[in-house]
Specification:
Length: 245
């Protein structure tokens, strides 16, 4: 009998507990759940009860919490959100960095909001990444410049060689020699007597006659060509005289 009574009491207590656990949620709980499911639409929470915010805001992401704090005007949410930002800082940058920041603030006797520390750390990381990218770009440019300098290039202008310079020098020497010879021959012509000049004129007329006859008598090409050649060989000085005229 006692065992039966004890079992009945236990069964009654279990039923009461089940009834208590299965009680419907309150209107506040339903509202909190609805807000948590729609955090992406949440903005200014200036008039919201702090206890409700303490239940809602821990479910926010970094971007959502930052948006809510910037959208809320006339109210400081730091007493509620500071620990949340510290948790974000620790998850993002590690426990070691979080402890280091705490130690530095204690040593210097200053205190900053963890949201400010989080944003400052992000900016430092972005600047460091930008500097590293700039260094990588500069190294790439230097490497590319070295490769370009080592490549074989086609030259449109060939630099003058030593042979060409020597050829040009010999050409100038021969040109000077020819000028000297011309001047000497001109001086020699000036010193000729009138009889000698008359003789040269006669030879010049004879040579011109041979040219005219050669032009009209093409059939005798070889004969008159040989005759003129023999005449010029016999009078080498005459060839220069005809040019001077």
């Amino acid at each position: 009998m006692r065992s039966e009574v004890g079992s009945r009491r236990i069964g009654c207590e279990f039923g009461r507990n089940m009834l208590m656990k299965s009680e419907p949620p309150s209107l506040v709980d339903l509202c909190v759940r609805t807000v948590i499911d729609n955090l992406r639409y949440l903005g200014d929470v200036g008039g919201t009860d702090p206890q409700l915010l303490a239940r809602i805001l821990p479910h926010c992401t970094v971007d959502q919490l930052m948006h809510i704090e910037k959208s809320t005007k006339g109210r400081d949410l730091t007493p509620i959100t500071d620990d949340l930002w510290k948790n974000f800082y620790e998850k993002e940058f590690g426990i070691r960095n979080t402890k280091l920041v705490n130690e530095r603030m204690e040593d210097k006797g200053v205190s900053f909001r963890w949201s400010q520390l989080y944003e400052a750390k992000l900016k430092d990381i972005e600047q460091a990444q930008k500097k590293s990218l700039d260094r990588m770009k500069q190294r790439y440019k230097e490497t590319d410049a070295r490769k370009q300098s080592r490549q074989v290039r086609l030259c449109t202008k060939v630099p003058p060689s030593s042979n060409k310079r020597s050829f040009g020098g010999s050409y100038n020497v021969s040109y000077l020699k020819s000028n000297i010879m011309k001047k000497a021959k001109i001086e020699a012509l000036k010193r000729l007597t009138p009889a000698a000049l008359q003789h040269l004129n006669l030879l010049y007329v004879t040579c011109m006659s041979l040219d005219i006859f050669y032009f009209f008598g093409k059939k005798s090409l070889d004969i008159f060509g040989k005759a003129k050649h023999s005449f010029l060989l016999a009078n080498p000085f005459f060839s220069f005289y005809t040019v001077q005229r």
